[in-house]
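Reviewer 2 asked us to include a model.

Predict the structure of this chain.
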Amino acid sequence: MEALLPKFDSVFSIDCVIFGFDKGELKVLLIERNEEPFKDCLALPGYLVEQNESIDFAANRILYELTGLKDIFMEQFYTFGEVNRHPQGRVITVAYYAILRLNATKELKPVTNYAKKAFWHPVANLPELAFDHSQIFAKALQKIKRKITYQPIAFELLPEKFTLSQLQMLYELILNKKLDKRNFRKKMLNFGILKELDEKQKGVSYRAAKLYKFDRRKYGKLFQKELTF
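Predicted model (structure tokens):
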């Protein structure tokens, strides 16, 4: 005879780490909380999952309610379950991440009173966040550092047309290291996934650089192995 499981209410939350690239900076989406605990503190967009909804549905609902963003493709990347991570009791959080082009997103505007505002903050000088959100952010950043070596995720952050300098700058920001210019450009051009355009930068005070586009049809098998720089 099978043992009967005791009835209990599981408390789960969702936390979203959304990255964007704008004006030469890698940024992350934050909110200013409007309720206890950690009222008035900065945090990742996150809240509790309702009993009658799936985890994936909750992730999209919570991101929309706290930031106004919707129809964003997010992926789960880790589950955080330390016993004392929430001051009001045991809460297990499922973390999601996404990478966006900032110039393609809507205005940030929470549709709930749980957040005072939502905004993009540079990753380079991120302050201490509420709960264990600094740890969650660090785990997400580690994830994209790893992923950029085997998938062309950098192209999700850049504008449709970009220069090789912009591409290198983004790799350097994510990997947090300086890359040799000649070696980087040679590798990226040899990969065959960049389409050179018959266009140059406009409205710049220095020598205009050539513009490129990412050729999605060609990257196929290229990123099955890790890239090294």
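The longest strand covers residues 12-22. The mean pLDDT is 87. We have added this to the supplementary material.
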